[in-house]
Design a protein that fits this description.
With 152 residues, the protein is mainly alpha-helical. Helices cover 17% and strands 4% of the residues. The protein is built from two helices and two strands; from the N terminus they run ααββ. The protein has a two-stranded antiparallel ribbon.
């Protein structure tokens, strides 16, 4: 029994060492690692984005049907947006205005999908909808950094 176990261990060690000696060094060239034909270390620099000034920019058409609306103003002063700090709700958490006609210079209320109905029937903001920039982005006319045929 000991002899057969020892023989199996020696055979296994010999097989592993033979395989290790036969393995060739694998070299990956950085411009062959991804879908892009350029080096993974190339960092394309996008143009500086100039956001519209003020709060009355004309909305840009959505990228596709059902896309969340873009934010028509700069949000630099509102960041970071998280569960503890969300300045967006100061202007947009107006459940009483849901369904009313959009009025120029009056912030659009968050849609009903961002709320839940409390036991008393009132709308309360959902705790899962506090990172606004997860779906909504500040709007700006910018060129695609890479090609996009999604909506063609």
């Amino acid at each position: 029994m000991k002899t057969s176990l020892l023989a199996m261990l020696v055979a296994g060690a010999a097989t592993l060492s033979y395989g290790a000696l036969q393995a060739a060094e694998v070299t990956l060239v950085d411009d062959q690692m991804g879908l892009s034909k350029s080096s993974v270390f190339d960092d394309p620099s996008p143009e500086v984005i100039n956001y519209p000034e003020g709060f009355d920019a004309a909305p840009i058409s959505p990228a596709y049907s059902g896309a969340p609306p873009q934010i028509p103003h700069n949000i630099d002063d509102y960041l970071p947006i998280n569960a503890q700090k969300n300045k967006c709700t100061n202007c947009h958490e107006k459940p009483a205005r849901i369904g009313q006609k959009k009025i120029r210079h009056i912030p659009t209320p968050m849609p009903e999908s961002h709320y839940y109905k409390a036991e008393d029937g009132s709308l309360k903001r959902s705790d899962t909808r506090y990172v606004c920039v997860q779906c909504h982005a500040p709007q700006a006319e910018v060129k695609d950094l890479i090609g996009n045929t999604f909506n063609q």
